[in-house]
Amino acid sequence: MKIFYLCPTGLHTALVAAGLHVGWLQADRPPVRKDLHKMIKEYRRLDYKLGKPVSIGIDRAGNEVFTVGVGRVHEIMKKVVTDVFKKVYGVSEEEYLVVDTAGLANGWINTGSFFSMRIKMSVFGETLCAYGIRKYYPDIINIVEQVKSETFQSQIDMKIIPSRNNV
Amino acid sequence: MKIIYHCYGGAHSSVTAAAIHLGWLPTDRIPTDKMLEALPLFDQQTNKDHGHIRLLGLDENQYEIYVTGRRNAALVLENIVLGVTDILKMPRDQIHLVNVMPYVNWKMVCGGYTSRRLGMIKLGRPIVATGIRHNYLKIVSLVHRVKMTVGSETLKDGAGK
């Protein structure tokens, strides 16, 4: 399965959620500015541009995790990603999952991303973002846990069905 | 081959271009308002439909013709579509994205806003249709260019459909 975490920049809530999902970040240790800076720097090396899905890694269940920066129209782009899979390429719904993490962004993250992305004051911006992320870290963990349980469950179901038929 | 025509709302210019591609509208003359209004999806999409990619039909080469509305995020849409194409390991030359926004004039913008956003269909729809009729031959030339590009790509690859 391919899991996409979406947020306006792809560098903040989506990246933290994807980092948590693949194990770059720990649930019991919220990221500080240095962690965030390291992740963003690493991410930007991967030919970063808005709309381009970037592979973050593979989780324990074998799912490939991506992040996508989609700008302010995140709700519309969630539909676009879903429809490209479903309608254009006819991929089964069990093969992909699109998670919009833009709702997790708070004032701190939005202000921080504005300073780091638009005004290029990355140290100040990332400090604000890291503060915002630490403040809402439990919410991000909840979403990731939910996604993990959903995807893990669907994989178990897929494995059980053929074995039942065989019996 | 899959061809996606995209514009702001996916209700007027992209639908018109897709209809020309599919042969539902004439290429040698300007259609009447009634012909435009009879098109499926013409002036139908609302805000909640933005982002949905809809199959309008198959052209003479069995190419799939889609339309979508993506607000002002043309580049984001193109990057997503091509990115997902790469992830699925599909050939990039089998998908073609066409931005119809350069052919949208102020009448189409005002009429579209009046009809779709304000819900004043009786007032907005004729204004949109007038705008489309004004730029119709430009949209026809765009579709011709798309067909030539797609045809030459297909010939180059020798892949056929």
Keywords:
heterodimer; A: 167 residues; alpha/beta; 4-stranded mixed sheet; 6 helices; 13% strand; disordered C terminus; B: 161 residues; 5 helices; 48% helix
Structure, described:
- Chain A is α/β, with parallel strands linked by helices.
- Chain A has a domain at 2-104.
- Chain A contains 6 helices and 4 strands; from the N terminus they run βααββαβααα.
- Chain A has a 4-stranded mixed sheet, with helices on both faces.
- In chain A, helix 1 (13-22) packs across helix 6 (137-166) and helix 4 runs antiparallel to helix 5 (122-135).
- Chain B is an alpha/beta fold.
- Chain B has one domain.
- Helices cover 48% and strands 14% of the residues of chain B.
- A 4-stranded mixed sheet of chain B has the order 2-3-1-4, sandwiched between helices.
- In chain B, helix 1 (13-21) packs across helix 5 (121-157) and helix 4 packs across helix 5.
- Chain B starts with a strand and ends with a helix.
- The model of chain B has no long low-confidence stretch (mean pLDDT 92).
- The interface between A and B is medium-sized, with 25 and 30 residues.
Report on the biggest sheet of chain B: 4 strands, mixed
- Spatial extent as radius of gyration of chain B: 15 Å
Principal-axes geometry of chain A comes out as globular
The DSSP helix count of chain B reads: 5
From the alpha carbons, calculate the radius of gyration of chain A and give it in angstroms: 17 Å
- Count helical runs of chain A: 6
Q: How much is the average pLDDT of chain B? A: 92
Main sheet makeup of chain A = 4 strands, mixed
Our count of domains of chain B comes out at: 1
Order of helices and strands of chain B: EHHEEHEHH
Tell me the series of helices and strands of chain A, N- to C-terminal: EHHEEHEHHH
Oligomer: heterodimer
What is the number of strand segments of chain A? 4
Unreliable stretches of chain B: none
In total, the number of strands of chain B is 4
End-to-end distance of chain A: 26 Å
- Helix amount of chain A, in percent? 55-70%
